[in-house]
Amino acid sequence: MRHGQVRDMDLDEKDFRILLSLQQDARVPLKELAKSAEVSIPTARSRLKRLKQMGIIRRFAVAVDFSKISGSVDAFVTIKARPSDLATLTHSLEDAVEVRDLYITTGEHDLIARISLPDMRALEDFVLKRLGSLPGIDSYRSSFIVEAAKESWGPTLRPGFGVKIPCRKCGKRILGEAVTGQLAGRTEYFCCQTCHSTFQEGRLQMSNSLSQGINSPSVVEEC
Ligand SMILES: [Zn+2]
Questions:
Q1: What's the 199 CA to ligand 1 centre distance in angstroms?
Q2: What's the number of domains the chain is made of?
Q3: CA gyration radius for the chain?
Q4: Average pLDDT in the 24-35 region?
Q5: Cys-Cys crosslink for 188: which of 100, 131, 159, 168, Cβ 3.0 to 4.6 Å?
Q6: Within-domain flag for 206
Q7: Alpha-carbon span 58 to 52, nearest angstrom
Q8: 44 is in which domain, residue-wise?
């Protein structure tokens, strides 16, 4: 990892415009992207690269119209969990391929999951057998989706939005300036120099013990 450098984590109006254009059409030509953000093409390119490096743009994907696809039955399941089991339950549901989206919520329910299966029978099986057998669930209720009257992808972007990137070491939200380092070709973000150094030392130790163990140079895989 390269020595930590400080990078400003704030996004501005131009980043907002770039993201908004891409959210509407991810295939927008760079020339048009630059025009909508009122920047030069090289600036648009470098801003785009930065947004990808920061992980704000996770990937470019296709939005398929749910109403035009057959062979998929979806439902929303609201779940009330026992407080002590909420984290474990959340992880179990995150790992289930049937769970498309999962939200931790406030109010009457603790979790809302959107699940997707090939037919009604499979969906009922999943809800009654799999979900019903998971520990930590106090109660749950499911509603089948008859029709998607309106669907959106990703967050609603508004002018003046901020970023919330967690520190790679301590997990705290980074406010203001971040310390960055390169690891396996990826930019990692830290809240302070201490977190950066501790993380770096940990990696070094892991790398050393691995090479001693197998008596040859080793590569530490990024998790
Ligand atoms: Zn930290």
A1: 9
A2: 2
A3: 22
A4: 94
A5: 168
A6: yes
A7: 7
A8: 5-56+163-210
One domain, residues 111 and 75: yes
Q: Which residues contact 106 (CB under 8 A, 6 or more apart)?
A: none
Helix (H) or strand (E) holding 6: strand 5-8
CA of 180 to the centre of ligand 1 (A): 11
User: Can you read off the two tokens belonging to residue 24?
Assistant: 């509407």
Per-residue pLDDT, 222: 40
Is residue 83 assigned to a domain?
Answer: yes
Name the residues around ion ligand 1, CB cutoff 5 A. Answer: 167, 169-170, 191, 195
Question: Residue 104 in contact with residue 62, Cβ under 8 Å?
Answer: no
Strands, DSSP E only, in 69-204?
73-81, 99-104, 111-117, 137-144, 177-183, 186-190
Q: Per residue in 174-200, pLDDT tens?
A: 877 788 887 766 778 888 999 999 988
Residues 128 and 169 reside in one and the same domain? no
